[in-house]
Amino acid sequence: MPNVHPVITGLASSLVLATLAACHVSVNVGNTTGDVPGMSAITESDLRRDLFAMASDSMRGREAGTPDELRAAAWVAERAREAGLRPAGDDGTYFQWWPMRRVRPSDESRVLLDGAPLVLWRDVSITAAVDTTLDLSLVWVGTAGADSLRRLDLRGKAVAAMIVPPARPPVSWISLRPWRYGGLAIRERAAALTAAGAAAVLLVADDSANDVFPTLAVQNRRGTFNVDTTGAARVPARAPVLWAPNAMRDRVARAGRLALTLRAESFVYPSANVVAVAPGRDNRLGGEYVLFSGHHDHDGVRNTIAGDSIWNGADDNATVSVAMLAIGRAFVKAPGRRAALFVWHGAEERGLLGSRWYAAHPTVPRERIVAVLNGDMIGRNAPDSAALLGVQPPHRNSAELAQIALDANARVTGFKLDTIWDRPTHPEGWYFRSDHLPYARAGIPSLMFSTLLHADYHTPRDEPSRIDVPKLARMTRWMYATGWAVAERGARPAVDPGFRLER
């Protein structure tokens, strides 16, 4: 964990303990004091039960574009119905269906070195889908740098080379650096070789990239995903780039010819946002919405690590999914003046696709969404630390909403807040990687609640048994208290004048 910085000081420990133990908590927000009467509906036992169900092996990691994601969506919808939330999706259902386009390299593709086939995804990986048939002489350039490449005639040839460290190796927290090193090194090396005229590129992993070959090969094989709006696949015309593990180095270096028959495949899959609502009690404000946001998908069944191939995604993002169910129970027990809208997005791990779709095609009038409270990974790391993103410029788009959340934390949960990850200089760019982003770009006041990355992030070790359930309950109460305060106040949070979100 990075250093933790409290945003407020002077809270007596006795006050913090008293408020944590309370079932009926008061929150002072923007000079408006109001009760939080539904707090007792948020219990550790409910959160634990739902968490162990949603992140169980039977859910198979809830990968977008598979029946497992749809099973998870159906499970969430049924739990929302049991909680008393009303359907708010399409056609009176809990679901908003939308099309997802996938483009991937076909397993029917063929790669031959000197006429001998390589085993796809074991001996060699295709980095991006491409349709081409080539039979070219192969030139080995090893670790040659830019100056040496300029002296070689590589035009129209296949070029084999070693992966070399990128010009600016990526900085990353926890366990992500090797994965990012591999991706960046491949892109930079391939770009240099194609700029020198290579018609095809075959790279061999150095020691650092070699460690993540299985993980990156799985990702390459899955291809790319996007919201489908055209009904047609787009496969860019480009020089094919392949890479091989270090064990293939001698074989590649000796080869004189590379033959490729590469094919791309495209599919359209259904994905679903689950949408539910707790109606507001106020005749004037009940037609406005406080939107609670999370995602129900994760990474599915992938390459085996330490004997486990199911990437359960307990923290990412079953913690928030079950927290939203608990918050829903609280609003059903004690409705707010404004309605509480809950959107469990699909395909977040494929590029925030579900939230991009909902922000563009909301099932309620967009102008009536007064705030978005998004959560991503809220159940790990030090028990007393958390983070709130969207509080510091340029990420902050509503100083009023940020203050509401900070005040709720001060009164209800007392977390020491890490301010580093909300800075635009943070190497993770964490603010840009979750479902509040499309809403912020649409001009809706938005925040992200998180307890940040950890060593089990995007690995099979993100299991429900590793979640700190008491901390998850505290984070759930914080999100609820923030949303309750927004629901109760007379004026909606204002967007900061001149807000422009650019990265």
Shape: elongated
Mean pLDDT: 91
The CATH class designation of the largest domain is: Alpha Beta
SS elements, strand count:
22
Task: Calculate the terminal CA-CA distance, rounded to whole Å.
Answer: 24 Å
Q: What structural class do you assign from the helix and strand content?
A: alpha/beta
Beta-strand content? 15-25%
Number of domains: 2
Q: What is the number of helices? A: 13
Task: Write down the Rg.
Answer: 25 Å
The CATH architecture of the largest domain would be 3-Layer(aba) Sandwich
Tell me the major beta sheet: 10 strands, mixed
Q: What is the third-level CATH name, the topology of the largest domain? A: Aminopeptidase
The CATH homology group name of the largest domain: Zn peptidases
State the share of residues found in helices, binned by percent. Answer: 25-40%
Poorly predicted segments: 1-34
